[in-house]
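step=encode ok
step=design start
structure_in=
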């Protein structure tokens, strides 16, 4: 049992909890300290023992338990215990722990908490078997996050068949997709996916030229304003049948360099309105760069 006695100010006890020279016996006696600051300092120690952290996994303060969940010194047993924590933020913190191994990931795979499965789907170290299981996850959000992050060609191929637009849209920003996979996305029936694709990834010349005649003006406009679009393709869009697409292409060129003196009046007007304004790179909604 930890010693319930308390001596010294909170600041002094925090300093003692952080001091590398403090004995493990003394540290363990402090796990029931009435100050959250003291217990948080104990939970963050890189040399904390499994016994001390185990006591702190039951701490009444959610913040202390979350610190334990992030501590690389936490044992597998303590991490597994925290995966069942009542507070979702504690459970999610386990996924960020550098000691999160295949055993922990296996439990996350079966979790009822879809956010845990989503965090799992984003892990670079995710095993192919686990990724394959997530392809059939009941949550389209989880599958979308897998689509955005996976580097496994077979998993990408499987997700290309997913019926949810948001999942295929995730693939449209995935840098690990092959030219062949990007071609399939460039011919996807959803204009939202095609617009996302041209804004996020480099495409083959044949796909770019085919998209010049895309039936959706939104797709052509996205291509006109994309940093990924080669200049000769953007110039072709300056003659697009849609006025907004033409203007988008002209605006992008005008923001990079002023038009020639003999340029059409419309192009000169656009240039005056957009001088020194650079196109904003598009990002996938709700995701970090």
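sequence_out=
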């Amino acid at each position: 049992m930890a010693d319930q006695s308390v001596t010294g100010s909170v600041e002094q006890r925090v300093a003692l909890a952080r001091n590398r020279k403090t004995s493990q016996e003394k540290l363990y006696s402090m796990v029931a300290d009435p100050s959250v600051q003291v217990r948080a300092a104990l939970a963050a120690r890189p040399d904390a023992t499994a016994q001390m952290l185990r006591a702190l996994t039951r701490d009444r303060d959610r913040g202390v338990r979350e610190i334990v969940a992030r501590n690389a010194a936490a044992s597998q047993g303590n991490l597994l215990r925290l995966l069942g924590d009542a507070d979702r933020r504690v459970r999610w913190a386990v996924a960020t722990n550098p000691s999160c191994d295949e055993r922990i990931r296996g439990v996350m795979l079966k979790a009822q908490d879809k956010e845990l499965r989503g965090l799992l789907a984003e892990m670079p170290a995710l095993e192919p078997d686990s990724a394959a299981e997530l392809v059939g996850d009941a949550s389209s959000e989880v599958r979308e996050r897998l689509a955005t992050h996976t580097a496994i060609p077979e998993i990408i191929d499987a997700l290309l068949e997913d019926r949810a637009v948001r999942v295929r849209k995730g693939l449209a920003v995935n840098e690990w997709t092959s030219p062949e996979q990007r071609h399939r996305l460039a011919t996807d029936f959803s204009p939202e996916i095609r617009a996302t694709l041209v804004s996020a990834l480099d495409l083959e010349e044949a796909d770019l030229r085919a998209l010049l005649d895309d039936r959706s003006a939104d797709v052509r406009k996205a291509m006109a304003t994309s940093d990924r679009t080669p200049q000769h393709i953007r110039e072709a869009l300056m003659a697009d049948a849609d006025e907004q697409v033409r203007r988008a292409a002209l605006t992008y060129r005008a923001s990079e360099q002023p038009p020639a003196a003999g340029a059409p009046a419309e192009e000169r007007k656009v240039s005056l309105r957009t001088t020194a304004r650079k196109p904003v790179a598009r990002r996938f909604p709700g995701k970090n760069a």
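step=design ok
step=annotate ok -> The chain is about 55% helix and 0% strand.
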